[in-house]
Amino acid sequence: MQAFESLFSQFVAAELPADAAHDLAHVRRVVKTAKRLCDLESACAEVVVPAAWLHDCVTLAKDDPRRSQGSLLAADKAITFLAGVDYPQQYLAAIHHAILAHSFSAGIAPETLEAKIVQDADRLDALGAIGVVRCLQVGTALGRPLYAAEDPFCREREADDSRYTLDHFKQKLFTLADTMQTTAAREEARHRTRVMQDFLDQLAQEI
């Protein structure tokens, strides 16, 4: 597996877009978390590890109209790559599904333990301190204002993260803990969500 991981890393580094929130550091964090969950859940590492490495080998911008197709494009590209480096064929279908189901925007339910782990690992990287940073990176890249001056925390209006970066916390990020598939991920997600809420509480005092 170690020899394959070197190939995975090289391939992903060459394929990732110029997106600070979906860079190689993000992929490495997802791999690290996926490996930990894989050990805790006694899942198949031969599926989890390559799927985690390759889950973002195609990444579309948040405002791209093809956004929901991104994980399918990534899954297809990953399988083509894996076949080309002679990765064991018996794992390819499961890897394809794990990559396909990891995406929030695709709305595809993970049907295997391995797919659940990859989805959990990717979603955990949207939470906590790193989640705050990544949310701000995306909002900045899209040129969105940080918050609505009249109601920064959506207390009297519907959240709209297509207009304001902070709205993404309420509209999506604070819902992720309830979508976690594994027990360990749910516990970690709740902790990371509290970290994010603490950030917003502090921000509210400052603005």
Q: Low-confidence spans: pLDDT under 50, at least 5 residues?
A: none
**Number of beta strands:** 0
Order of helices and strands: HHHHHHHHH
Structural class: mainly alpha
Report on the biggest sheet.
none
Kindly report the average pLDDT value. Answer: 92
Question: How many H/I helices?
Answer: 9
Strand content: under 5%
Rough shape? globular
Multimer state: single chain
The rounded distance between the terminal residues' Cα atoms is 49 Å
- Radius of gyration equals 17 Å
Helix percentage = 55-70%
Name the features.
single chain; 207 residues; mainly alpha
What features would you describe in this structure?
This protein is mainly alpha-helical. It is 59% helix and 0% strand. The protein is built from nine helices and no strands. The protein has helices at 2-15, 24-41, 45-54, 70-84, 92-101, 113-124, 128-141, 167-171, 183-206. The chain is globular. The mean pLDDT is 92.
Short description:
By secondary structure, this protein is mostly helical.
What is the secondary structure topology, with strand pairs?
Layout: H1 2-15, H2 24-41, H3 45-54, H4 70-84, H5 92-101, H6 113-124, H7 128-141, H8 167-171, H9 183-206
Helix pairs in contact: 1-3, 2-3, 2-6, 3-5, 3-6, 4-5, 5-6, 6-9, 7-9
